[in-house]
Amino acid sequence: MKVLVIGPGGREHAIVRALNEDPYVEQVHCAPGNAGIAGEVPVHAIDAQDPEAVLALARELASDLVVIGPEAPLAAGVADVLTEAGIPVFGPSRAAAQLEASKAFAKDVMAEAEVPTAMARVATNRQEAEAALDAFGAPHVVKDDGLAAGKGVVVTSDREEALAHAEACFAAGGSVVIEEFLDGPEVSLFVICDGKHAVPLSPAQDFKRIFDGDQGPNTGGMGAYSPLPWLPEGFTEEVMQRVAYPTLREMERRGTPFTGVLYCGLALTSRGMRVIEFNARFGDPETQAVLARLKSPLGALLLAAAKGELDDAEQLHWHHATAVDVVIAAENYPDTPVKGAVIHGLEEANAVEQVHVVHAGTALDAAGNTVVAGGRVLAVVALGDDLAAARKAAYQGVAKISWPGAQYRTDIGLKAERGQIIVNTEAK
Fold first, then answer.
1. Cα–Cα distance, 269 to 118 (Å, whole number)
2. Over the stretch 81-111, which tens digit does the pLDDT of each residue have?
3. pLDDT for 413 beyond 60
4. DSSP state at residue 345
5. pTM for the complete prediction?
6. Angle between helix 245-253 and helix 103-113 axes, rounded to 10 deg
7. Contact assessment for residue 176 and residue 129, using Cβ atoms and an 8 Å cutoff
8. In angstroms, rounded to a whole number, what is the distance separating the alpha carbons of residues 271 and 355?
């Protein structure tokens, strides 16, 4: 089959790589792609948030499946237009994508479906925000209700900082969701859905803060690893029964069945498992680690979901290796990133055994050099027999790559490698 992948980033590069390894996939295209993707498949310079432009390209390429990577095209209704034209699309409708596009909507769905999550209030002005902050206490969790590319969340013990973030959202015409703080380690679980049925992928953990030790501002994610050796037995099954299936049933009841990836951001708290947030697409950078381990054909799985033909009982096959990916970001990220620097060492990094480099914010300059074109620029992905081996290989790859101001965390997966992640397994 022929597959068109929509999106410009690292998640899309990881998807393209996995599709290229699927024996059922004969052709992969990407729009708009990036410098790394362009080295592997044809890319097309279109506006990914323009439904008609995506539809025209899918028709021109005679695509059998369109896979939508980022959240913005979903919120723009790209999936709706493709579905109306009879083209199988992996990604939810605009209405179903509200699970990510509106945190207030997601909280309402979770309440109706009795999904365990943090207590929360929606605030539309300073007075409501102050009342919510005081009700829940510190640490304060303030989330922009709309899409913010993973950076619309502030977690702080400083009440004034929390209020300032809320007021910035109000000034932009938005609202905020203020939640109780959830303690305990976090887990990302991607669930492939066809509206009724669901198949989980391998759990992962990502790292949101820019600096080592989970310091500094939130980012879109600075690295990830999978699987998680410290997870309690039966964790994935619990998430499917208490979170994924109830959410799918509630979305179907509302007349907005969910097809695509239900990204479950979870915390294992002292009171049991809780949902932090839903996203309506593959997470970045977890996708780079998760798909690096997948042995089952990705294209066949996504097409089955798009056509409503998933089998709940399907058992995916995984490489036994552990995967780690380390994101290298531009100077000044997550503020305004410094772009244009030539990236050195890509070939050397890709030559490290069990390592490959996934591109995110990259482009080619007039001379054909790969240059920095975004905030998160690359992810160095490594497989290893265990977490220690995968981390060592990943950082060997990272050491080969350079440009002025490049920054990365040195502690991706380190606590797990040292056995320092503790889960309260008594809580239910």
1. 10
2. 999 999 999 999 999 999 998 888 998 999 9
3. yes
4. -
5. 0.89
6. 100
7. yes
8. 39
